[in-house]
Amino acid sequence: MAVTAYAPASTGNVSLGFDILGLALAPIDGSLLGDRVSVVEETQAFSLENSGRFAHKLPEDPTQNIVYDCFLGFKAEMAELGIDVQPVKMKLEKNLPIGSGLGSSASSIVAALAALNGFYGNPLNSELLLRLMGKLEGQISGSIHYDNVAPCFLGGLQLMLESETQISLSLPTFDDWYWVICYSGASVSTAAAREILPAQYDKATTIEFGRQLAVFVDALHRGDRALAASMMKDVVAEPYRKSLLNNFDASRAYSLQQGALAFGISGSGPTVFAAVDNLNAANDIKSWLEQNYIQNENGFAHVCKVDTRGTQVLEDE
């Protein structure tokens, strides 16, 4: 029986939590902002069928696709458990643009591994599966980090713990906040976005980073929306990365003028986000960004809520 997994988009950092905060997103209009991967059947040789809005950006050779790497990683993990995994036929519905700052690679990785695990009767528990997801993500970005794969897999707002026994902690969120996201259509690689950052930070910046994160987490647990929003300023990456994004400052200025609680870069960019507590304001900001931030036909904008479900796995008849 075929198994299909849907893994939602995510925004890493959420401005104040560089590499250690991530948030899963779900458009309020019900559209799919995330990738779907299916494991159809066992075959003589691995095969992958691509579809979706951004399938044309994927390599034609299936062995160059991250989904194939996921199959190899899963096969190796199963071999350690004494389970033999045969080649399979897989399908990837690529709904997220590559290099968008919306956890595109994480979405494909999480959906692929969740579908493979489901197809073989869930031999890996959630913790082992998440660690494998982080390992595969590290193959793309150059280092293992979970701020996209953890919220993509688990849902909600995740704080990276990365201990020997647990990868992340789920934080409370505010149900009345909307998250407006806008992808410009341009592409910014995680590697390029990291190269523009300084190798070292001064003491004042590191103290500010720690203070913001501590106060933000405390404010979430106490339900203090105003205090939480006031902490959402990026002192680590945004001052440097915003130079890679056209019209960023104007987009921020307009969003804040319209009542946005916070505005920042989603992950490595070029997607930007605005946290808003009013739907009319959220729709207005979305419309303005569509007219002024999107650069080409690949761009899009959505009003989202937090995706609390994370990855969904379904068996297909």
UniProtKB/TrEMBL annotation:
Pathway: Amino-acid biosynthesis; L-threonine biosynthesis; L-threonine from L-aspartate: step 4/5. Its EC number is 2.7.1.39. Pfam families: GHMP_kinases_C (PF08544), GHMP_kinases_N (PF00288). NCBIfam families: PRK01212.1-4, thrB. Residues 217-293 form the GHMP kinase C-terminal domain. It catalyses: L-homoserine + ATP = O-phospho-L-homoserine + ADP + H(+). InterPro entries: GHMP_kinase_C_dom, GHMP_kinase_C_sf, GHMP_kinase_N_dom, GHMP_knse_ATP-bd_CS, Homoserine_kinase, Ribosomal_Su5_D2-typ_SF, Ribsml_uS5_D2-typ_fold_subgr. Belongs to the GHMP kinase family. Homoserine kinase subfamily. This is Homoserine kinase. HAMAP family: Homoser_kinase. Residues 66-156 form the GHMP kinase N-terminal domain. Its main location: cytoplasm. ATP binds at residues 97-107. Keywords: Amino-acid biosynthesis, ATP-binding, Cytoplasm, Kinase, Nucleotide-binding, Threonine biosynthesis, Transferase. One of its GO terms (molecular function) is homoserine kinase activity. Catalyzes the ATP-dependent phosphorylation of L-homoserine to L-homoserine phosphate. It comes from the Bacteria. The keyword Oxidoreductase does not apply. PROSITE patterns: GHMP_KINASES_ATP. It is found in: Cytoplasm. Gene3D superfamilies: 3.30.230.10, GHMP kinase, C-terminal domain.
